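ok trying again, last paste got cut off:
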Amino acid sequence: MAKQVFTLENDGFVGAYYGGPKDSKKAIILMLGDSSTDRMARCGAGWLIANSCHALCMSADKKYYGHHNYPLERFGKAIAFLKSKGMEKIGIAGASTTGIP
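nice, full thing came through this time. structure:
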């Protein structure tokens, strides 16, 4: 499963895009675990891809657990990226540490 990694400094949010079926116009911003590249996030992305969705996993910067201060602008930048990829339906799902915001 190929991924494109995003950093706060370069992209305005921390995350990893795992892609999905070329003909799909659906994406989920996935907030699982404490990293966008850890096993929990990768497994969740794999499940979404198997169910015809693109997956963009997001996480806080450098395992920062103060998610109550997670800036909404980061979601705006992630949504803009997904729209640039042709996504028409975008949802968000979260669990564990990063599902708190």
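cool. The longest helix spans residues 72-84. The two ends are 27 Å apart (CA to CA).
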